[in-house]
Amino acid sequence: MGNNNKGKGGRTERELIKMFFDTNVFAALRVAGSGSTPLPAPDLLVGGMGRVLAIECKSGKKRRYIDPEQIQELLDFAAKFGAEPWVGVRFDREGWYFLDVKSLHVSKGGNYAVDLKLAMERGVSFEVLINR
Fold first, then answer.
1. Any idea which residues carry the catalytic annotation?
2. Mean pLDDT, rounded, of the chain
3. Of 80, 19, 33, 36, which Cα lies nearest the Cα of 54?
4. Which domains occur in the chain, in start order?
5. What residues contact 12, with CB distance under 8 A and at least 6 apart?
6. SS3 assignment, position 43
7. Which of 51, 62, 110, 61 lies closest to 86 in space, CA to CA?
8. Does the reported pTM lie above 0.85?
């Protein structure tokens, strides 16, 4: 991932944090070093209304691939922390969609993949996520 993608990823993660805080019932934080530490860590940790969410965030124009190790780390962290594991995706000029790991497509190369069509079919919107 190049610097532009890291910068864009940080911007979209901060956008999502603000969305959670704007609900006035959820608090969220970015996990420092997620993706660059040997320990499992999601991109965001969110809590409120008796719920804890561990979210791996992806953003881009079309299809996003996610390394199987990232998914396994998300699941491991969430299980230990008592959090709901989610993959949050935001495509350019579209809103956020949140998917259960089981909803993701596994590509021929073994990576998990999500595109806008899959996100719209199997994902939930921010509003649905926070009102579950």
1. 34
2. 89
3. 80
4. 3-130 (3.40.1350.10)
5. 57, 59, 90
6. coil
7. 51
8. yes
